[in-house]
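Model it.
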Amino acid sequence: MESRNVHSSQLSRPYFQPNRHHRSADALVIEKLVSRGRSDEAAKTFFSQSSELFGQVSLNVEELIAKLNEVLKDDLPDGVESLDPSEHTPEKTAQRIVDGSTAFFSVYQEQHPELSGDELVDSFMKTIRGGIETGFKDALSTLSQVGALEVPGVEGGIDETKKLVEEKLVEYEKSLRASLSKDSEASISHLTSKEAVLQGASALSVSREVVA
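Modeled.
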């Protein structure tokens, strides 16, 4: 398979970028907005109930949905209404973010042959954490611009997703370090065995010549 030449700067901002197709962005921006239903009507009901409990939202529901649909038109050509709420929970959103970020490891490893072991892991994790943090900031900025952060629960949902992402990254990092350690041990074992066998074979060859 042909390796992709991904520059580290591309890893630093892998999430919300208008006019590009990044599925991880949609859940960050719309996660809580559609969590109560699959249709426009369900979203309107949710916002209406929130307004009664917490005060009037500065933008009406139709305007808010229209603004979000405009911002996300490249990622969601069919609009907010096309999202399946069960696929955009904090848990599933966090998993997609982590899976998408960690998928860059092999490319990063190829581009940084000077790094290995813990140094490689440290550098990679720092890079993807930076990209994830930037992605969350971009999402919050987008939500703020359209007025969505005035809706109770939106920002809290993103905070929950961020927490889950970090938990999953910690587990991934542990697994990665263990895997690299095993690979290194296996490589060293193979090298040692090979060299020792060759040495023994060489000794036998010398002995045969002496006997002859």
